């Protein structure tokens, strides 16, 4: 098969990660010398299970969406190949995900690095949302970083196109810690605000180097949010008491001052986070609106802590380009 021959172009260098539907390998293109991420998805596993010709729906979704997007802060799908048994997605390679970077680096993220990362992420969100795509699974594990200071959205397996007016989607999509409160309260008609809330949680984690709302169940997740942001009321969030899973018996917590929990570098940084962690989705700023914030306007490419990156990549990059 032609695709088998195409696969011969890549030399596998080791496993880079594992997901629900397959293994991701670090590989080198023998023709160019460049590293790629090779996502291998077994096909026969999914045959006769309602999947299109044995391809899981998340993989189909990822291929369809990524083939239609081009943005410097969204991981690029370079090629799609297949054999009788496997589907291979070839992505550009970035050395680490943000979660691993924060775990490995002994340093706090510098002010300018956080600003740089947030500018790129908000810009990518504005691009996706303008193309009517929700990511729906924003978390540090799905954000890839390199040594130059770039950060890119990855893992579009839970993404989907949306149309206006909004339609009902499953609300159990965003990983718990980054899940917007409207989803936790049973809202079925949601839109771009779910990504913005998740992005706010990611920003807080960059500043704290730990999750802001680390719940272990849906109710615990809600209470973790309420204890910091205050229990939502109709004054703060019009219509909240009408949501399916809202309970009048929820404990009544007062909002805390975020400055008591997070060490901000400047007032504009705190303001950006508050814009994203706004309860009412109708009042939560859009990515396009966030780009107008002064905090992001001064962002510039900033080098991360290079000691957090695998040493072997230094020699890999010395190969032919």
TrEMBL record:
One of its GO terms (molecular function) is cyclin binding. Keywords: ATP-binding, Kinase, Nucleotide-binding, Serine/threonine-protein kinase, Transferase. It is an enzyme of class 2 (transferase). Its EC number is 2.7.11.22. It comes from the Eukaryota. GO terms for biological process: G1/S transition of mitotic cell cycle; positive regulation of cell cycle process; positive regulation of meiotic cell cycle; regulation of G2/M transition of mitotic cell cycle; regulation of gene expression; signal transduction. PROSITE patterns: PROTEIN_KINASE_DOM, PROTEIN_KINASE_ST. Pfam families: Pkinase (PF00069). It catalyses: L-seryl-[protein] + ATP = O-phospho-L-seryl-[protein] + ADP + H(+); L-threonyl-[protein] + ATP = O-phospho-L-threonyl-[protein] + ADP + H(+). Belongs to the protein kinase superfamily. CMGC Ser/Thr protein kinase family. CDC2/CDKX subfamily. PANTHER family: CELL DIVISION PROTEIN KINASE, CYCLIN-DEPENDENT KINASE 2. This is cyclin-dependent kinase. It comes from Ceutorhynchus assimilis (cabbage seed weevil).
